[in-house]
Amino acid sequence: MISLVRKQRESINIWAGFVDALSALLVVIIFLLMVFVISQFFLRETLMSRDKALDTLNMQIQKLSEVLALEKKMTGELKDDISRLTVQLESSLAKSMGLEERLKEQQTIAKENMGQLLLREEELEQERELTIKQRDELALLNQQIYALREQLSIIASELELTKEREKVAKIKVDELGKKLNIAMASKLQELANYRSEFFGRLKKVLGDRADIKIIGDRFVFQSEVLFDTASSEIQEDGKSQLQKVAQTLQEISTEFPTDLEWILRIDGHTDERPIQSERFASNWELSSARAISVVKFFLSQGIDPKRLAAAGFGSTHPITEKKTEKAYRQNRRIEIKLTQH
């Protein structure tokens, strides 16, 4: 009896421990689920904030693209109008020619029908009695002639309207062309006036020197004024002369209208004799390097880089074709030209 009671007590104690273990395990699982749910919540908030930032950036990019497209559209508006009117004019001409051909065809058909009608009327006059069928045929023929005349009238009206539209379109194209030519001529004349004033001031500042000349629309420096032989380094005396040019340009550029697209182009030229230098493989490299040196000097003097351009021509554009030392000196030069974009 005592042994049986002891066994029952041991069985009851084991079951209580098992229940406690399951409870503890359930608490741990619930805790882990809560941690997982909270982490998922914060992760979702982070992803949503990143998506919102990405959407904002995409909208800004789209707005910038729209602004750029609008500006390009405005710059090409005048050319687009001219192209569109030209296409309309060509279309009107083609349509006018087509209407004229249709009118001729209809007139030919009308003449043929009129001839047939006359013949038919003569035949009917010869007959004393008209049958019902013959009367119907005559009525139908009269209706066809009337409809044909209406068509001819409509075609003629369309032809006149097309000619009027053609005249209006041609007048518009001519007016736009005149306005464009006047605007371009005005800008070119304006630039020419400022170029003359610029060269005039340069002439006063640099003085009357034989190695610095004005040829056409260019200010020409002999290479010896700025560089040593086979070198692209500007001499001190050359820097002094170029400094005067830069100062004069800065003074006169303040008077230029803001919408005047001007640029100062620096062209390098050499004589035809091949260069023998480790640094420069040919006269192309030498002329380009000298032009670039002048541009860099102007940049150091505060000239806007958007207003400068450099080009090297080697010996391809000589002033004179003579083979004398004097001719070679004339061909070795730096040309400064105030021109338009």
Describe this structure in words.
The chain has 341 residues and is an alpha+beta fold. The protein has two domains: 79-186; 209-340, OmpA-like domain (60s Ribosomal Protein L30, Chain: A). Helices cover 72% and strands 9% of the residues. The chain has seven helices and five strands. The protein has helices at residues 2-75, 77-126, 132-206, 223-226, 236-253, 283-300, 325-331; strands at residues 212-215, 218-222, 262-269, 308-312, 333-340. It has a five-stranded mixed β-sheet with strand order 1-2-5-3-4. Strand 1 and strand 2 (218-222) form a beta hairpin. Helix 2 (77-126) packs antiparallel against helix 3 (132-206). It starts with a helix and ends with a strand. The model has no long low-confidence stretch (mean pLDDT 79).
Please state how the strands of the largest beta sheet are arranged side by side.
1-2-5-3-4
Helical proportion, percent range:
over 70%
What do the pLDDT scores average to?
79
Q: Total number of helical segments? A: 7
Shape: flat
Please state roughly what percent of the residues sit in beta strands, choosing from under 5%, 5-15%, 15-25%, 25-35%, 35-45% or over 45%. 5-15%
CATH class of the largest domain: Alpha Beta
Write the H/E string, N to C.
Answer: HHHEEHHEHEHE
Measured distance between first and last alpha carbons: 119 Å
Sketch the major β-sheet.
Answer: 5 strands, mixed
Category by helix and strand content: alpha+beta
For this structure, the CATH topology of the largest domain is: 60s Ribosomal Protein L30, Chain: A
